[in-house]
Every structure is written in structure tokens, then in C-alpha cells.
Amino acid sequence: MAGKAVTAKNRPNRKSGQLEKEAAADLEAHKELALEVIGRLKKEYPEAKCTLEYEKAWQLLVSVRLAAQCTDARVDQITPLLYEKFPDVAALAAAEPEEIEEIVRPCGLGRSKARDISACMRVLHEKYGDHVPEDFEDLLALPGVGRKSANLIMGDVFGKPAIVTDTHCIRLCNLIGLVDQIREPAKVERELWKIIPPEEGNDLCHRFVLHGRAVCIARRPQCGKCCLRDICRHGKETLTYGEAF
Ligand code: SF4
Predict the structure, then answer these.
(1) Ligand 1, pocket-test mutation among 37, 41, 170, 172, most atoms within 8 A of CB
(2) pLDDT for 238
(3) Which of 39, 174, 187, 211 has its CA 20 to 30 A from that of 230?
């Protein structure tokens, strides 16, 4: 039986087929790179944990809000003072935002951080019986909680797949070549979900923070000392002829 005649209409679109192949190959290459980065950073930083100190889930919510435009070390200095005066969700929910602000002011943006913490603790107290909800969308709906904080809680507190796209993660992913010139946190997160095994995301992001502080320092990455240099896009560009051959 004669096959269907090839016409201009049903002729396979070579160009789009080729583009699809290239996109698939590109995705595989990014996945391979991600696995290599994960393996090497695991060796370099066996312990991957959050640099903010907390004992209870609600305390991590407080700390992560305070950490905006502030160092984790400063936050860790301030939170014990806050919890000494307001030891639980109910106490913080009952406090006036001004009372919270008085303590958290050294973290910067005191008024808005105090307002968010107060509002957030009131929702936890009134809606969730002083517990932190385990659902990503419920977390996102809490006052002052964005995707970064919600992912951190999901990963660190509940042990669920999470990708925390903070400044270290975004900077390193662009330098290494895991993403290409993407700066918006939600877009970086979306790209990383495609190439990182879900169970590895949370720890990898903690390791990005550790690596970003120790070696891949903003504005002066120490490529010569970096365990990722031969696979990192930026690192490879900085290799001298002698190092490369
Ligand atoms: S090779 Fe350089 S740019 Fe790449 S991750 Fe290491 S320090 Fe950062």
C-alpha cells in the first residue's frame, strides 16, 4: 500500500525537531553538571545545615524574616533576646509590634519586620493552634513569608523537597552555569527543579551558602581554590593555558 504523500503541509519540520533535540541535550547536560556539583560540594561540606539558629519551627519563621538584608550572625544574636521576653507563639502574638520592634531593630527594617512577625504569629496562634502549617501554599499565605522562607521551612523543618533561591544560590548557579543569566528567584527555582533531584535540593542550597561564603565570595570568587573550577563555567574561563593543559 502506498504511503501517504509528503506535502508541504505534513512534511516534518526539521528546524523545530532539531531545536527540540538541542533543548533535550542541553537539559541532560545541565542535569549531569548538577549531579557533579552536588557530589563535589557534599565532599567539601559534609554537614549541610541552616546557618540560622532555631529550636522550633516558628522560630525559624521569625529568624528568616529578620535575616532579610541582615547577616545570619546578627539575627542569631538578637533572637535569644526576643525569645527571652516572648518565649512562644502566643506571647509573640499578644505583643504589640512596637515591643517586638524595640528588640529586633538592630537587624534593620525594624518596623516592617516587627509588623510581619507580629501578624504572622497572630495567624499561627489563631488559625493553626500555634503550629507552623506543613503545606507550601499555607506557608506562602503567612504574612511576611515568601517562596524562599516557605521552601526553607519545607526543607529544614518538614524534610520535604525544597529549593531555597537566596543570593548565594542565584549567584553560584549563574557562575557555575546551572542556569543562564537568570536573576529572578522564582525563575531560578523553576529551572533548578528541572535539573536537581528533588531530595537533594535543600542540602545543595545550604552548601551553596557555605561555598559562597568560604570560596565563591561575591565580587571576588576564589576560583584557584575551588573544587568546582574545572566544571564551573566561570571557573573554566579563568583557567590559564598552563592550568588547562
Ligand atoms: S570556580 Fe570560581 S566562580 Fe566557579 S564556583 Fe568556584 S569560585 Fe565560584
Answers:
(1) 172
(2) 85
(3) 187
Nearest-atom number in ligand 1 for the CA of 236 is 1
Is residue 175 a contact partner of residue 188, using CB atoms and an 8 Å limit? no
Q: What is the pLDDT of residues 44-94, one digit of tens each?
A: 999 998 889 999 999 999 999 999 999 999 999 999 999 999 999 999 999
Measured at the CA of 110, the angle between CA 217 and CA 87, to 5 degrees, comes to 100
Rounded-to-integer distance, Cα 157 and Cα 135, Å: 12
Q: Which of 223, 227, 230 to mutate to test the pocket of ligand 1 (most atoms within 8 A of CB)?
A: 223
**The domain 57-157: what is its CATH number?**
1.10.340.30
Domain boundaries, the chain: 57-157, 167-244
- Smallest CA-to-CA distance from 179 within 30, 19, 29 is with 30
CATH architecture, domain defined by 167-244: Orthogonal Bundle (1.10)
**Hey, which residues are catalytic here?**
148, 166
Q: What is the mean pLDDT of the chain?
A: 93
**Residue pLDDT, tens place only, 95-107:** 999 999 999 999 9
CB atoms within 10 A of CB 241: 6
